[in-house]
Amino acid sequence: MDSSEIRTKLLSLLASVAPDIEPDRVDPGRNLRDQFDFDSMDALHFATAVSETFGIAIAETDYSQLASLTAAEQFVQAQLAAKPETPPRTVSPSE
Amino acid sequence: MRSEFRLPSLGADMERARLTQWLKQPGEQIRPGEPLATVETTKGLIDIESYDDGRLVEHLVQPGTEIPVGAALAIIETEGVSRAPPTPTPSAPRPRSPQPVGAAVESPMTAPSSAPAAPPVAAQAPAGISPAARRRARELGIALEDLATAAAGGVVHIKDVEKQAAKTPAVPTDAQAVMRASIGAAMARAKREIPHYYLGHSLDFGPARAWLTQYNAPLPVKDRLIEAVLVTKAVALAAARIEGFNGYFRGGRFVPSATVHVGAAIAVRGGGLVAPALLDADQKDLATLMRDFSALVTRVRAGHLRSGEFTAATITVTSLGGDGIDVLYPIINPPQVAIVGAGAIRDQAWVQNGQIIVRPILVLTLAADHRVTDGRVGSRFLRTIADLLAHPQSL
């Protein structure tokens, strides 16, 4: 999966956990908390969606790796590269 | 018996709402707690629930119509006596009281039956509209009905709203200003009427955090708990144990509630906040409470709450921890009598057994109503919360 695919997926996940933001207005480098007032529940919802969609384990201590869109993209890429044998699950975030 | 189904007040600030959609049609059976209609308010979309068992006879108002609080929306045929009490008390066994929390209007049920509903508007709102687009439409003063054609029958997105705005220059109605004014009205009433007293207590959140880390470690992300859930549960248990903090001040006296419904203050993106209730928070295990909390935040984000959630809270918890603030001094949401504030959990120097150690410290604050309790019992209440958090397995 290339980085633009990952970014597109991440944007759709953001839109699903925070339908009150517009995905095309996300500033990729900016902290989601500062940008959209993400609280701990929003962060958890996003982490859940990322974990289930890409089939990667996310430890509690790794939540900070999802602080911005760019950071999340890099994190997902690194996790997928480290675990090439794990195929991404096609799971909807609502599952 | 026939009765009128009226638009309840969903907060001190709410004067009117716009009927968006009927969820029940004439002839359909209805049960208590079932949503009958969706209305749009300054707080987003809210499903208005029934308090009766029976059958919907007739719609009195069509979708698209603006209606004042207390106006009759429909005629309902109830079996036997109507279950909607004119002035329900919070200690009534029904978990969802139709009485407004934080309402300046004393009772929506006593609104004059002659309250005229605006004439029905024939235009139809579009089938679907994203919350962001809905907010933008409100900002730009675009009527939702005008968007139906813009979206060509599909879901309306923000770009459709802006396209429509370019075509039809409208007078902007500032949604932010409306919400700010409504919060102002409720808080001004609280400051005017409630003699607040404030207490603060620092506690070592270490045991709770260690327990949480262990609990969460083997779980997939979706089943993990967050710190706010532990605090909410501790407040709920303390509210059930120590009298004087859970209930309403109404008619010149404190009416304790037999059930504990904790209002969770949730910030609305772009400004403002809502405090819908986590029902029976003292009775639920942490996993269940977490699921309820998670669903509540999802509904706030989607701009789609239920009326019962707005009217049920018997005490409120508010947190600014995510913003890195150590201490907050909250204002009580009338007619409630207490609110607990939680600041950021931050590593600090802490003295234990004569040693200075670094611990994660949480400062809890209590704002309570002096007409009901004094600082002494307030201290006991805060210390009970702290004790519960010190023994997280007891939550």
Automatic annotation (TrEMBL), chain A:
Residue stretches making up the Carrier domain: 1-80
Pfam families per the UniProt record, alphabetical: PP-binding
SUPFAM superfamilies, per the entry: ACP-like
Transmembrane segments: none
Cited InterPro entries: ACP-like_sf (IPR036736), PP-bd_ACP (IPR009081)
Protein name (database record): Phosphopantetheine-binding protein
Organism: mine drainage metagenome
